[in-house]
Amino acid sequence: MLLSIANRISLYLMKENPDQDPIEACTYGIDIVLYTLISTAGLTLIGSLFLTFGQTALLIAVYYANQMSGGGYHASTHTKCFFSMTAGLLFSAFVIWFINGSLSIVIPTSCTALLVLWKYPVILHKNKQYLSTIMTVMKNRARLISGLSFFITVALYFNPALSEAAMMGMIMAAVSRLSSIVLTRASKAPAP
Description:
Elements: H1 2-13, H2 20-50, H3 53-70, H4 78-99, H5 103-119, H6 135-155, H7 160-188
């Protein structure tokens, strides 16, 4: 459904250019923008049922920033993507509820997430291999964002609710990277 809406918008925007390649590229871009807006609104609504709006927004922002800069798990459909992000958000809400302001967990856990994000700064999706020519720039940017995420987590240390949310955003980004690595290796393993 989202793809058909994106296609209609593309056809309207590109009515002066009947060439199919730019229309397909425009459709793809609009589809991604629409999905991102709708899924972010959905995640914010779901998260706000279990966390404060501020916690939800910060967790999503830290996760998105790290995911966009370094990649990670990539679901095959928008629906699977939304459900995997919802599962991560609900898991994060449970962890935040469980640790309940125990700041002694925040710094070591954030350090662990930072180490994972630092060791695996960029995981390129198979459809984005053309970006491998700028891998050094991408790695530096991803590490900068991971470092800033850690800095935000530490800077918010005396606001446990927000510090824990930032920590969980980092953890979910690290889990996404590791999941992508594991799934890629599993798909390349020879069949028994």
